[in-house]
Write a structure and sequence with these properties.
heterodimer, A: mainly alpha, elongated, B: mainly beta, Neuraminidase, 5-stranded mixed β-sheet, 4-stranded antiparallel β-sheet, disordered N terminus
Chain lengths: ~70, ~300
């Protein structure tokens, strides 16, 4: 497993597309971990270097796992 | 399947008149000998619950370092326990007696949970692809696959992420119960040789999600099981989602029943008087429950 894949250019673009759709369609009450994930990826994409984006993307993923386990577990 | 009509649902009888026993943020539990060891994350402490009297002894955690994760614990025979920290990146070893953080080490890959595979430490891995081992066992400094439980595929990255959340409960000398948070009401009994037996368990969630994938990918799943505790008399399962609403939705009802399953049969279903968080102990005549309101209480069972 290579967690850096999630922030590679190949996967970041679809993830950001997903993010945009989720953010725009979400109702106000949704305490959704996925919305947080989407916004986190959007923020990560603004970082200056590939390494920074990769590290931030991994953080986003692990934060989302934590959020989902807290929510549904 | 929504089970509830065919079975006699017994009301829970909590022990009355006792002082409250509180756990701030449940991080995991292990049962050993005369105590139930509970990792409390807020404030960070180890709470030893006497299995007979339910009195609680608290040992604050010390030693600094990052915040521990509520991803379970692995108890070791030397009196230490392991937990994850830093969103699953770091494995921490704690002294159960003093609460001191003895060791922290970076994992080769992050975990979403830690447990005991009897005399070995078990790690629940985070997977980005389908078909990869989700359970790993520690072998020296490394981790190797254990059991046949594999990661599942998801239609979207979010669905993949949700569909591969896995937890493990308390087991016996022979087997450990593990389950996917999202999906059908199955508990996998993982045996010492790594083989798996799938057990269908009662559920109070609908068979299929109310919504297809809409604004929230989480609403495309159901979440039948919150906790499982295997003892020689059978498997005890704390429900999770009850009714149509998933746990993140307003008005959601969750974890109000505990079912006892043995040899494929549901022997009884206990109705809790409030939301349960975890089964801390199970044995002849009673359960020890941790509730979502942070209290601990005994529940009589037959």
């Amino acid at each position: 497993m290579n967690l850096s894949r999630i922030a590679s250019p190949r996967t970041l673009v679809p993830a950001l597309a997903l993010a945009a759709g989720l953010v725009s369609a979400a109702p106000a009450h949704g305490a959704s971990c996925i919305q947080g994930y989407a916004q986190c990826l959007v923020d990560a994409s603004d970082l200056a270097t590939w390494w920074q984006r990769t590290a931030a993307g991994i953080d986003c993923y692990l934060d989302t796992v934590a959020c989902l386990k807290g929510a549904y577990g | 399947m929504i089970l509830s009509l065919a079975l006699c649902v017994l009301p829970a009888a909590s022990t009355a008149g006792e002082p409250p026993r509180l756990v701030g943020e449940f991080g995991g539990r292990a049962v050993s000998g005369s105590d139930i060891l509970v990792l409390d994350l807020a404030p960070p402490a180890i709470r030893l619950v006497d299995r007979r009297t339910l009195t609680v002894r608290t040992t604050p955690l010390s030693g600094g370092g990052g915040r521990l994760d509520p991803y379970g614990i692995a108890a070791h025979r030397d009196g230490t326990v392991s937990a994850l920290a830093d969103r699953g990146r770091t494995l921490v070893r704690l002294s159960a007696a003093t609460g001191e953080r003895l060791e922290s080490r970076r994992l080769p890959e992050p975990g979403q949970g830690v447990t005991s595979f009897w005399d070995r430490l078990g790690l629940i891995a985070i997977r980005l692809r389908a078909g990869e081992p989700l359970l790993l066992e520690q072998a020296g400094e490394r981790f190797r696959p254990f059991s046949t439980i594999l990661s599942r595929s998801g239609a979207t990255p979010a669905a993949h992420l949700i569909g591969n959340l896995l937890r493990c409960g308390s087991g016996t000398e022979g087997a450990l119960p593990c389950w996917f948070l999202a999906g059908p009401p199955d508990v996998a009994l993982v045996h010492r040789d790594g083989s798996v037996t799938r057990i269908r368990v009662p559920t109070f969630a609908p068979a299929v999600a109310r919504k297809a994938a809409g604004w929230d990918p989480g609403a495309a799943f159901v979440y039948p099981v919150r906790d499982a505790f295997l003892e020689p008399g059978g498997l005890w399962v704390l429900s999770n989602q009850e009714g149509d609403r998933t746990p993140l939705e307003e008005g959601a009802v969750r974890a109000r029943h505990v079912a006892h399953v043995r040899e494929g049969r549901t022997l009884q279903v206990i109705a809790l008087d409030r939301e349960g968080r975890a089964i801390l102990d199970a044995g002849p005549g009673r359960l020890v429950m941790l509730y979502a309101d942070r209290s601990i209480g005994a529940v009589s069972v037959r």
